[in-house]
Amino acid sequence: MRTRNAVARDYYGILGVSREASDDEIKRAYRKLARQFHPDVNPDPEAQEKFKDINAAYEVLSDDRKRQIVDLGGDPLAPGGGAAGPGGPGGAGPFVGFQDIMDAFFGGATGSRGPRPRTRPGADAILRLELDLNETAFGVEAPITVDTAVLCTTCSGAGTAAGTHLATCEACGGRGEVQSVQRTFLGQVVSARPCTVCQGHGTTIPHPCPTCAGEGRVRTRRSLTVKIPAGVEDGMRIRLAQQGEVGPGGGTAGDLYVEIHERPHDVYSRKGDDLHCRVTVPMTAAALGTRLTIKTLDSEETVDVKAGTQPGSTMRLRARGVPHLRGTGRGDLYVHLDVRTPTKLDADQERMLREFAKTRGEEVAELSKQGGFFSRMRDAFNGHG
Questions:
Q1: Annotated binding-site positions for Zn(2+)
Q2: Entry's SUPFAM superfamilies (predicted)?
Q3: Residue 52 clears pLDDT 70, i.e. is over it
């Protein structure tokens, strides 16, 4: 078995990378060599020693402070040379689980991922807006009030008090994660976890902004005006770009979505861009014909009811509905006619109506039919026939 020299080891040479190699290049080289010399893959004792050297080299070169010691000609893992703490090669760190081992070889928690940014995009917001039919049909500029997070004007999103700045986290040295080398039954494994002191940011806020407590944003109520286009329907959403929640650290605001809810109308019902209404006409008007004045959403129209119109008839008024949201033109208005039959008649009205029925031969025919029908029913119950 080989013995280690007292001189500083060539950690770059162990991983086969140049002294100018990036963090990603070091990580790729480590993973490649770790798979090649892992004891489960290569049981040769020399390979096991090589595997330990690979882990030590990666521990050093993935840590900015230790790498700096190497670049200055030192060995951070040598006695008195800035070696790692109890979790490093010189100490017997705690046993780690199988998932930690898999992460080490296949890109899980190992490797320098860098600090997590404090500034992140904000979330979208949604607001319900109730409108009348006339407003959805022809459009309106509606005032709205929204409660969202906005940029803190005291610190302009920095999160720090006036005259102060972010400080590099002493626990992780600004890397946002803490690395350790642990001994397992497979050998030594390098693992990395987010720093609990700075929550992975790499920096701390010694003096938070008194207004936002370091968030870089505060909640407030804002008043806006949203332009509703003509022809929108119930359930549609209108997007207001970057009018939603400001992100942590003063990040870019999300979008605000205004969801349309159309109130029921007293007269009209809507199906797409078409409107429907019901109009009651007397029986005599339906029989003789008449003229109606229909009040549409934006005008008055005179329509002729033809003589002899039957109950349930429908009249169509073209281009008197809702304007199309996309394109030109409008939907139609459908007028459904309900013919009303009188429920109470005085003596003169009943006499005139009977005389009218006689002239049409309707009353006699109905009476004869009813008489024949009831006579047959009576005979059936009395046992005649």
A1: 152, 155, 169, 172, 195, 198, 209, 212
A2: Chaperone J-domain, DnaJ/Hsp40 cysteine-rich domain, HSP40/DnaJ peptide-binding domain
A3: yes
pLDDT tens-digit map of 364-379 = 444 444 444 445 444 5
Domains defined for the chain, CATH in brackets: 9-77 (1.10.287.110), 118-157+213-264 (2.60.260.20), 268-376 (2.60.260.20)
Q: What gap in Å lies between CA 176 and CA 117, rounded to an integer?
A: 9
Q: Which of 45-49, 75-79, 331-335 has the lowest mean pLDDT?
A: 75-79
State CA 368 to chain mean position distance: 73
pLDDT at 206: 95
Is the pTM here over 0.85, yes or no?
no
Residues forming the annotated binding site?
Answer: 152, 155, 169, 172, 195, 198, 209, 212
- Nearest-5° Cα angle at 175, 18 to 202: 155
**DSSP calls for 171-206:** TTTTSSEEEEEEEETTEEEEEEEE-TTTTTSSEE-S
Question: Bridge partners of 218?
Answer: 150
